[in-house]
Amino acid sequence: MSESLENEKTLDNLSHKYLDATIYLNVKSECEMNEEPVRTQDVKIIIKEENSMNKEHMHIRTQIGTNIYKCSLCDKAYSKSSHLKRHMMKHTGEKLIIPKPYQCSLCNTSFAYNTLLVRHQTTHTGEKAYTCSQCDKAYSQEGDLKRHMRIHTGEDLYQCSQCDKVFLRNSELIIHMRRHTGETPYQCNVCGKGYSQNS
Asked: DSSP characters for the chain?
């Protein structure tokens, strides 16, 4: 019996026995975007009862742990084909339109998720609920505090190879490196003057 048929049979047997279970199977997967098969890997299968009236009807979702969907135009790779499709839109210039039903009552900025709206609203109130335990800095976002804490712990910092400057974000290091290289990728449409960052 082939490996894929054996795995299919195993999955079928397990799906009848276990509801709301997480099962790990070793299966071969082929990337639809690439011609050659990807190496054997662990695929997480989550089985959930989809319809309580029909227990035989299962919803099976796979989560592939490796980035098998590779962009043919650059070196980026993704674990889901939908993520690759969204990335490819950057190359083609297409715009992804996401509905944004949550609107700020103070500035009319709209958001796709209520959590993003709530986070945004702290910019109007000036509330800074997240305070650093090492120094007096305070932040309105928990993520900003976590990023700041790396200054104190020294972990995951981005160091310039040309000087002793250190950055919390790789994007900040990239902009800084342009000072050393003289690269000016952003041009003024009117006068043609180049800039190291888009502002």
From this structure: --HHHHHHHHHHHHHHH-SSEEEEEEE----TTSSSPPPPEEEEEEEEES-TT-TT-EEEEEEESS--EE-SSSS-EESSHHHHHHHHHHHHT--------EE-TTT--EESSHHHHHHHHHHHH----EE-SSSS-EESSHHHHHHHHHHHH-TT-EE-SSSS-EESSHHHHHHHHHHHH----EE-TTT--EESS--
For 113-172, write each residue's pLDDT tens digit. 999 998 888 889 888 989 999 998 999 888 889 888 988 888 878 889 999 888 888 888
Which domains, and CATH codes, for the chain?
3-92 (no CATH), 102-195 (3.30.160.60)
